[in-house]
C-alpha cells in the first residue's frame, strides 16, 4: 500500500484549477491592489501564483484587513466561533462589493 501525500495542495484538484479560458498568468494589476485597515476582502486563491497563497480552507471566505506584513495583508477570518489571522498576498484577494 502506498502512503498518501500530506502536502498543502492535496485534494484541491477542482478548487485550485482554472477554467480553460482563464488559463495563464493573471493580470499584473492585481498584485498592485491596496487595502486599508478595516476594509473587507474576499479570499479567492489564484492557482497560477504560488507565493502568498493561504491554505485552501480559506478559499471563498471573507475577512477584514487588520494590517500588513511585508507585501502581504493580514486578514481576520471567522471560522466557526474563532477568529483566524491569515497572511495573504494581494493576488489572492478581491475587494468585497456591497
Overall strand count = 5
Shape: globular
Radius of gyration: 14 Å
Largest sheet: 5 strands, antiparallel
Task: Give the rounded overall mean pLDDT.
Answer: 94
Structural class by helix and strand composition: mainly beta
Order of helices and strands: EEEEE
Give the amount of beta strand, in percent: 25-35%
Give the helix/strand layout:
Elements lengths: L39 E4 L18 E8 L2 E8 L2 E7 L4 E3 L3
Antiparallel strand pairs: 1-2, 1-5, 2-3, 3-4
Question: How would you describe what is shown here?
Answer:
- With 98 residues, the chain is mainly beta.
- Helices cover 0% and strands 31% of the residues.
- It has no helices and 5 strands.
- The chain has strands spanning 40-43, 62-69, 72-79, 82-88, 93-95.
- Strands 4-3-2-1-5 form a 5-stranded antiparallel beta sheet, with no helix packed on it.
- The radius of gyration is 14 Å and the shape is globular.
- The N and C termini lie far apart (51 Å).
Short description:
The protein has 98 residues and is mainly beta. It contains no helices and five strands. The termini are far apart.
Keywords, please?
98 residues, five-stranded antiparallel β-sheet, 0% helix
